[in-house]
Write a structure and sequence with these properties.
This protein is an alpha/beta fold and about 375 residues long. The protein is built from 14 helices and eleven strands. It has a seven-stranded mixed sheet with strand order 1-2-9-6-5-3-4, sandwiched between helices. The chain is globular and about 60 Å long. The model has no long low-confidence stretch (mean pLDDT about 95).
Amino acid sequence: MKQQYNLKVNIPAKHTCDYDIHIGSNLLEHAEEIVKQCSNAKKFLIVTNETIAKLYQNALNISNSTLLILKDGEEYKNFETLKKIIDTCVENRLERQDCIIAFGGGVIGDMSGFAAASYMRGIDFIQIPTTLLAQVDSSVGGKVAINHEHGKNLIGAFYQPKTVIIDTNVLKTLDLRQLKTGLAEVLKYAFIEKTCGYEKFFNLYEFLEENRQKIFALEPDITAELIYMCCSLKACVVNKDETEKGLRAILNLGHTFAHAIENLTNYRIYTHGEAVAAGIKKAFKLSLLEGLISKDYYEKSARLIDEYEITPQMPDFDIESFYNEMFLDKKAQDGKIRFVLPDNAFSVKLTSNVTKEQVFKVLQQG
């Protein structure tokens, strides 16, 4: 019997927005049943991309639905594509009680969610993520957005889905690079677990150390458990801080560096996970420089990241340009860059007390 999990996102200030996350294998076969349990929609717009459509166009059977197939890639996460989604809603006369289903990775989920939040001031929205990155991170928590030429996800909203359906079987069609890009976010959860404040300590760090081969082999029970742990930690944070006023910022470990890397390379060279893995390593270097963590924890954590072989060789960025790019990070406040930095084993803190000289020193180390 393959392991299945259900958990709930329960935001105290918005009980009407509570929703379930379903995790297990073969859930696409039961998607319509799950969808009908959480939404009273009469019409559905399923938004996907060319890659997913080729693989799973006939696997998701939702009655009274229209399929919109978009081009695949971060470079299409923009106003033009958002307009296509909303135009399709209008053409098919979706009404306020109807629903958009995001069937794809993080780009599809973010854009579809933002379209759902915007169309008629908000219609139902369901996430069916197909990448590990989306399953453990972007599909949970209600962050929806498109990119702007001056920054990633600069235009968006907080808009919770009605449910999240995570079928672990779809991960079998991911290539190794895309699997690794999701594992970067998984590693992030291991480094922040204690700060999340979840009622149970999973020791995800140790789980990742002991099960690397099984994780890469996508063994069903290990995969389901891994996703369950990550989603549990994220749900715990979102329940306490939906709109990132404080605690939720810890989910951005490594992302201040990562978004600068992505912006400076126009999202065309590195996957999001590759940039995040590189960013996490830089955050650890900065923490070590600040004296926040021991050299032993730094070396052990850097070794864990290296064992998953996610971080590519980065070019020599112009340091001044890189530093300036970091001010566009959404955590920036009062003209200061705010960093999420490890401050102990499996915990992090948010700080603005990092000097330009310290950042330069980390960047100069590559």
